[in-house]
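Reopening this one. Same input as before:
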Amino acid sequence: MLSDDEKCDVLCILMKRCHQEDFSLNKAVMTNTKVFKLVVEKVTGKRRMKRNDRS
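Same output, byte for byte:
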């Protein structure tokens, strides 16, 4: 879980990316908001080949 300072910084970055106009965060609501940092250790996936690429 992030500290209050980190939480505010991260939410500002997120809102700038997802919201078209300026978005002001309500500081009173921030105390009720939890933000977690997830660290990805491994990523796996599948590759889908197009029909023309198959041999």
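So the earlier flakiness isn't reproducible anymore. For the record, DSSP finds two helices and no strands in the chain.
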